[in-house]
Input
Amino acid sequence: MRPVAFTYRHGWSRYTKIQSTGRTFQLQLLNHVRYVHQGQRQQSDLSSTSGPTSGRFSSGLPRTIAPPKSIFSVASPPALTLTPSPSPLSILPLSAVLRSLLITTVSSSPSLLAPAIGVMSLIANSKSSILNPDQNFALKYVMANTIYAQFCAGETPAEVRQCVRQIKHLGYSGVILGYAREIVMDEREAFAMGQNAGIQIGTAQKLQEDIFAWRDGTIATVDLAGEGSFVAVKFTGAGRKAVQQLVRGERPCPDLEQAIAAICDRARDRGVRLLIDAEQQAVQPTIDEWTIEYARRYNNAPSRQALIYGTYQAYLRSTPSTLAKHSAIAQSQGFVLGVKLVRGAYLGTEPRHLIWDTKEKTDEAYDSLAESVMRRQYGELLVKPPNGPGSFPEVNLVLASHNRASIQRALNIREEQIRRGEDQIEMSYGQLYGMADDISCELVQQRTQAQDLNGGKLEIPKPYKALIWGTVGECTKYLLRRGEENRDAALRTGDTRRAMVKELKRRLLGGN
Output
């Protein structure tokens, strides 16, 4: 019987050859310099559902010079000889570069990754104290200094605060922080929870303790994340009672409802936004209902900033209609819709007919949904519901992607909106801590350059790193999923590995 895990956690640089600022028009006005892409386009991938992507971010062009045929096809004029800025990856400490090189070397090699995932799966699912990192000092030491350090914030609040400070010091806008405690149930137990079979899921006291522990852990995570950051919230982390209600399509019980409200209130008081995680389809419809209900309660502040964000998985065929339905509800009821857009993370467990046939269709869906949200316009894929309001609601977006082409397309849209003087939505970019640093650091560099060149008047990317905290043992399920993600994204991790090799050579040779 296979266990099913429910997680409680919850350059642009002015390079002469290959990188560009991604803000050509504005920077040209300020510096009379054009930033362009040149050279071979790389292939990149996000996950098992993402398709081939372009290489380094190419710059958008001013319409008065050579407007692209579309925002997704940008011509690159000849490059000028420029004084190079520091490498985007130069902001990383040497230890992070070396660790990333080690991890991506393993994850980009199928012959190395398969046994590594096998070992991680054994550790994550074993009941033996010998294979429990929290009880085996030697195992904990090895993991804590390799894969755990690559993807996790720390075990204690003090370690987490230090990690968050370091991330912000690098130039990121903040973090997306989650708590990594997990609850594991097998398939039979999970299925029985959805039936009126009288299954014993625990004493009332134990179920209440699970909810309170989840509440306290999530509130602590809100406090650790700090103002301006996000916290990832996983409803199934509240325990078996929460899972049972999600499977059955019920409202949260009074204890759980009070716990969710307490988390929302603390987040509002601390200036932290909440990202409600997407999960498997057995529970996702109810998660959507709960999310939109709390968005209705909390996303109507005078600041017009969303506190509650739902997660929308582009690989699901149903996502366009779900997002359109939620958009209509938000518009008709006058609250801001919070959208976290991802490609999807449960390809291996979802019924295949629910998912787009190809990776390319998932990519198309992701980019189309992102554009509709950014422009606040219905389109061919995101269709206005019958009898729904004609206009699009106010919306805040977290574009969560490791796909270079999708990030570039979004930047092109933002540039176009600036040139035309159009209103822009509140928007952030998210990548996992320890992954896609070649993309994330370029976003950070663009953010820094734009601030320096124009005193913050330009549209400035808001990059965030997503990570979790908890003991090494508590984080093993999360770390296993990162390994499984990399198994289906060897091409992208290969791009990151090559970027780390290049950065290490640059440091050894003393180049820019």
